[in-house]
Specification:
CATH class of the largest domain: Alpha Beta
Protein name: Putative esterase
InterPro entries: AB_hydrolase_fold, Esterase-like, Ig-like_fold, Ig_E-set, Mycobacterial_A85_antigen
Radius of gyration: 21 Å
Strand order of the largest sheet: 12-13-15-14-16-17-18-19
CATH topology of the largest domain: Rossmann fold
Strand content: 25-35%
Organism: Algoriphagus yeomjeoni
Mean pLDDT: 91
Oligomer: single chain
CATH architecture of the largest domain: 3-Layer(aba) Sandwich
GO molecular function: acyltransferase activity, transferring groups other than amino-acyl groups
Keywords: Signal
């Protein structure tokens, strides 16, 4: 229980992603371009080469418009109305590289930006904006063979319904019918759902590009809803893992092993997750060490040697965070695990906080070693 409380405080501390410190002495370059996350044909919102974002909203009868930024909509940018009833504004400082959720607050009401595509986060469909990253090449859409992300509906007797998951199968899966694959069960964070890793995280493109470059042996990724959003953000300390553990271990894994060409054993099965999904990974891997051999916590806490004592030893433990989160805790924890004889790896994403650029980079670092480290 103490672990959950610490992570909750951690999430709140890193929830905003706008950097104001650089704003005072910076001259804003007028090289703004539409965000790559815009609706087709929409010119706004726009981003520039420095990481500033600019917004435009047509609402002539509105009295006040604010653009919320960061996890949970804390902070934001007030827009100004011109004589034609068009509201515009630019962030006070450059934003971190990568993807961000946001929404509009218009006269006290919450709305999505009609210029931007929507992504499920903060327990609702939020507008999304992409700040170009210096290393975006690794998750860019390229002219390489592509895998498939398919929706599956699996029976769940414990919840008396059919539940949804998305399964990434690598290029060549449908042709190489005699080959079986390892599996990574990859969880989203609180407020998100099973669409997050594909839509916001570009997990499929990261995998496609790594496979095309010959940097990894292909594996499947399974993404399902972690049953976390039924509790409010402030009540996450009371989240119980039991129901989701049953769905994942007793229902989803057998379904995947029966319907996909997997190597259906502990050695070739991994679990990982970001933020709340990391907390779920932490609990389930400790409860079910006979099911998973490789663990990954992405901004989702740490393991200690004491927690792992008495359990079947994992083949790999991967722990990551952004440099604006609590990187010392990650590197210290991994050092302690190594000292205790565990194969542990840390990764710190430079210049990012509790956001998808941290987790995209984490998956990129994790994938090549996930099923090769022993």
């Amino acid at each position: 229980m103490k672990h959950y409380c610490l992570i909750l405080v951690f999430l709140l501390a890193v929830s905003t992603s706008v950097c104001h410190a650089q704003a005072e002495n910076s001259e804003i370059k007028e090289d703004f371009k539409p965000s790559s996350k815009n609706q087709p044909g929409k010119e706004y919102p726009q981003v520039n080469s420095q990481g500033y974002a600019r917004f435009r909203v047509e609402a002539p009868d509105a009295q006040k418009i604010n653009v919320s930024l960061g996890l949970g909509g804390r902070g934001g940018t007030d827009l100004t109305k011109n004589s034609e009833g068009v509201w515009m504004g630019t962030t006070a400082g450059p934003m971190d590289e990568g993807f961000h959720y946001y929404h509009l607050t218009i006269d006290g009401g919450t709305f999505n930006d009609p210029g931007a595509k929507n992504y499920y986060g903060s327990t609702r469909w939020e507008s999304g904006i992409e700040i170009p990253a210096h290393d975006e090449e690794f998750y860019s859409l390229k002219d390489v063979p592509h895998g498939h992300v398919q929706q599956v509906l699996f029976p769940s007797p414990s919840t008396n319904t059919s539940r949804r998951a998305f399964v990434y199968t690598p290029p060549g899966y449908t042709k190489e019918t005699s080959k079986n694959y390892p599996v990574l069960y990859l969880q989203h964070g609180w407020g998100e759902d099973e669409t997050a890793w594909s839509n916001q995280g570009h997990a499929n493109l990261i995998m496609d590009n790594l496979i095309a470059e010959g940097k990894i042996e292909p594996f499947l990724i399974v993404m399902t809803y972690g049953m976390t959003n039924e509790v409010k953000f402030g009540g996450l300390r009371d989240f119980k893992i039991d129901a989701f553990q049953t769905v994942l271990v007793d229902e989803l894994i057998p379904y995947v092993d029966s319907n996909f060409r997997t190597i259906a054993d502990r050695e070739h099965r991994a679990m990982g997750g970001l933020s709340m999904g990391g907390m779920e990974t932490h609990s389930i891997t400790l409860n079910k060490p006979e099911v998973f051999s490789r663990y990954a916590l992405l901004s989702g806490g740490i393991y200690t040697p004491e927690q792992l004592q008495g359990n079947t030893k994992p083949e790999l433990i991967f722990i990551s965070a952004g440099s604006k989160e609590n990187p010392d805790r990650v590197t210290t924890a991994v050092a302690a695990l190594k000292e205790a004889g565990f194969n542990a790896v840390s990764f710190v994403s430079e210049g990012t906080a509790h956001e998808f650029q941290t987790w995209r980079r984490s998956l990129y670092e994790l994938a090549p070693i996930l099923f090769t480290s022993k």
